[in-house]
Write a structure and sequence with these properties.
Elements (H helix, E strand, L loop, with lengths): L1 E19 L2 E14 L5 E6 L10 H10 L3 E3 H4 L7 H13 L5 H10 L8 E5 L4 H11 L4 E5 L5 H14 L5 E5 L6 H16 L6 E6 L7 H8 L6 E3 L6 H9 L5 E4 L1 H4 L2 H11 L2 E4 L6 H14 L6 E4 L8 H10 L1
Parallel strand pairs: 5-6, 5-12, 6-7, 7-8, 8-9, 9-10, 10-11
Antiparallel strand pairs: 1-2, 1-4, 2-3
Helix pairs in contact: 4-12
Amino acid sequence: MRYQFKFRPYRRRFVRSLTTNHGKWQIRDGIILRLTNKSGRVGWGEIAPISWFGSETLEQALDFCRQLPEEITDEIIFSIPDELPACQFGFESAWEWRNGGDEENIITLNSSLLTPNSLFYSALLPAGEAALNQWETLWQQGYRTFKWKIGVYAIADEQEIFESLIHTLPAFTKLRLDANGGLSYEEANLWLWTCDNLKANAEIPLEIEFLEQPLPIEQFQEMLELSMSYKTAIALDESVATLGQLAACHQQGWRGIFVIKPGIVGSPSRLRQFCQQHKIDAVFSSVFETAIARQAALQLAAELSRNNRAIGFGINHFFEQEETWLQSLWNDL
């Protein structure tokens, strides 16, 4: 099959910068793709790389798109190298979509998605004390699972904020702590010990669902050891950013939680095959994509989520409304 191929870069500014152990993120750059087959059916895709997380750079993705002809084939789409995982996701998603979907469906999906697995969303809280001021607004919007960034400020300060947060959040809230690989081994032990003590405290009916990526990716064995030493679960994130990393960690014995970011993991078809074969405990998470990539990512989450865990797509509060902006973008294509 042959397709007419067009692409257009985009830039979106965060309403508030996202602060993690990797630094401050203020602008989301990406690329919108359009594939049109001979019958006029259109497939939309999106390349939304995060180079500091493990994907290709935006410039590498643009270089790849620029060198392609105006007409591309299935063979080209399915031979994109593994060094370009966000490109693999974007092109294959557009290929899958070419048999259906339309612009209106893209726009309305995010607010109305109801999946067969009753997936629900986890909302991302800002790092530091700002979390104490924002959780209530998100709670009123219906969120019951929150992710809070740690490893950003001094651990003593963060544990003090954490103490306030757990006494402020309503009963039976689920809280995820995400260190983005920013803790030392001693700090990871302290956080896990703190969370285990909280689990033992019946007076605080709040669940710490997991500690996400406590150590850098090169300290896999230490995270494996920690996962066996505490009751609080550990989830891998940066360690499993791409399909190659996902397979390697599984092969080395990880049977805990895998946080999968579809937008940068690579080929959707190969991801399906891996998840279905190994029946992993996966939490699907956003890369701050537009509604185009979000639709493809949520479809994968609906298909492959096994343990009814909230998916990490509660990030709309970091951007202005995108409908008008997105409509004008694809009108240009």
